[in-house]
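Batch job 17 of 40 flagged for manual review because the log was empty.
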Amino acid sequence: MAIQWFPGHMHLTQKAIAERIKNIDVVIELLDARLPASSANPMLAELTQGKPTLKVLNKQDLADPERTALWLAHYNSQSGTRALGLDASMAAPAKALIKACFELAPNRGGMVKPMRVLICGIPNVGKSTLINTLTAKRAAKTGDEAGVTKLEQRISLADDFYLYDTPGMLWPRIIVAKSGYNLAASGAVGRNAFDEQEVALELLDYLKTHYPALLEARFKLTGVADLSDEQLLEAIGRQRGALQGGKKVNLQKAAEIAIYDFRSGVIGRMTLETPEEFARWLAVGKTLDAQRQVKKDAIELDRKIRFKKIPRPDLRPSR
């Protein structure tokens, strides 16, 4: 299953960012520390036109700390980029964010040249909660469903520091299949765009390999690494009482339990990808996408020939 979700308001957000970026000094991209690369919007590099970027790995309290360190090192090694880890619930994150932005754009500051920062992120990454923490008030709406913020807002963090908030935005086509599953598991994708059982099976397949002890402790199971994905989902459902008639496991309910427990962090601190893993997934995704494009171009060419929009090419060998 290919997971895609790009509601109409996200298209409007894309246009708003393209217009706003002309007067922006630094871009803050809020990422989910549990899936840093999957939650990084590939459209943003185009839209921000090489502006200095601060990558903020949010929800780091839910992520594997060793893997968070790998991701911070990965992003901090990139030109024009700073990265730091953050919890949206931290009491005083504003100082760290402001300091990092001035390091990226040292010529800005003061009433004559105030710092202008655009904050972006995928849906449900915790951006609104973070902004409310930064301003110590409810400046932005929050919720546990993707797509709560719908309008751009300007927020003053200091006399010479303006923060422009935008609605959460995905991208029209997710070419890394694993990213689609990870985004769905994290809550970044609307529920109508994916099948919970399929997402839960993909999630458990990864977790039983990389975090078997955490799964066993949470669901009171043993030997999870030796179970198939389907057996593990059924065992979780049975252990948690997700049963229907004849004591058969309700797999839909079991899937919802597995996804909810991951999102809330009650299973433990875990991260669904490393920089090396994502690089492999991206390479495969690009190859498959190129193959799909070749097939699409061939179908379109055939359609144009059949409807006589272009002449049929002469394939006879020349003499």
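Reviewer: the log was empty due to a logging misconfiguration, but the result itself is present. The longest strand covers residues 26-32. Unflagging and moving on to job 18.
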